[in-house]
Design a protein that fits this description.
The protein contains no helices and eleven strands. With about 130 residues, it is mainly β. It is globular.
Length: about 130
């Protein structure tokens, strides 16, 4: 079992920044890949970014490239999402997720993630 708890969401004006955190517990954090997803009202949940176990491989959705940065601190069992230059269309509930398959590369397929956090709301006003 893996427990994931997100924090850091909130309301910000367009152009602002937020940093989300996701604290993991229950298994050795450095053995699984992590992802951040989001779901806006009336839309499907989508991948935002993912990171490998070591942190050396990352993937980003085209919509956030150059604005968002994923990172992880395996000593603190935490993955982060730094979001800069936020836009109104970034408004969504953001979820972190854990993929326990031990793949070297993080998957972008949400159905391959095993555990999910409860989500944190990010609201960007224009």
């Amino acid at each position: 079992q893996v427990q994931l708890v997100e924090s850091g969401g909130g309301s910000v004006q367009a152009g602002g920044s937020l940093r989300l955190s996701c604290a993991a517990s229950g298994r050795t954090f450095s053995t699984y890949n992590m992802g951040w997803f989001r779901q806006a009202p009336g839309k499907e949940r989508e991948l935002v970014t993912a990171i490998s176990r070591s942190g050396s491989i990352t993937h980003y959705a085209n919509s956030v490239k150059g604005r968002f940065t994923i990172s992880r601190d395996n000593a603190k069992n935490t993955v982060y999402l730094q979001m800069n230059s936020l836009k109104a269309e970034d408004t969504a509930v953001y979820y972190c997720a854990a993929d326990l398959t031990r793949s070297l590369r993080p998957t972008m397929n949400q159905h391959e993630y095993d555990y999910w956090g409860q989500g944190t709301q990010v609201t960007v006003s224009s």
